[in-house]
Amino acid sequence: MKQNIIYTVILSLIFIVLETCFRIEHETLENVTKLSNYMEIFLLFFALSFVTKRLSNIFVIFLSTIFIIEILHYNYFGYFLFPTEFILLFSKFHEVIETGVTVLNVTILPMVFSLILIIGIYYTNKLTNNRLIFNKMKYIFLLFILIPIINTSIILPQIIKTTF
Predict the structure, then answer these.
(1) How far is residue 123's CA from residue 55's CA, in Å, rounded to a whole number?
(2) Chain segment 72-109, per-residue pLDDT in tens
(3) How many domains does the chain have?
(4) What is the dihedral angle through the alpha carbons of 135, 136, 138, 142, rounded to the nearest 10 degrees?
(5) Which domain holds residue 33?
(6) What is the value of pTM for the model shown?
(7) Minimal CA–CA distance to 113: which of 7, 5, 16?
(8) How many CB atoms lie within 10 A of CB 48?
């Protein structure tokens, strides 16, 4: 259990510190994050600490990738990525890469963050190699991940109906 808490605290701190640094770097962003947001991050990683190492690694790498893509997008366009633009990233991947090569100065901070994330994830996994794993916890974790998606899929159509 001790290693699960260490895993939770280290990964939560890495993501929170990197996001805070990013917000401080960009004056247009609000520098204050609610305590509830920190608690959500902590709870997410706490639940993740009990799932299999393979699933936890896949999710943390996926989350890191999304985080870096968001930072890259914000550095270039000045706003965070919308879901439709995320789809365009995959459908127009070659165009995105060609454009990205021409604006390498925008990629410096995200690459530093990527390096910090990779090193942090690697050493956290190495440090907490013997954490407690519960096979049934993966279902609770997946439910924890699906709740916001279900909530969005219920609320978003209602917003679209009232707006248009």
Answers:
(1) 17
(2) 888 878 888 776 776 777 777 787 777 767 777 777 77
(3) 1
(4) 170
(5) 2-163
(6) 0.70
(7) 16
(8) 23
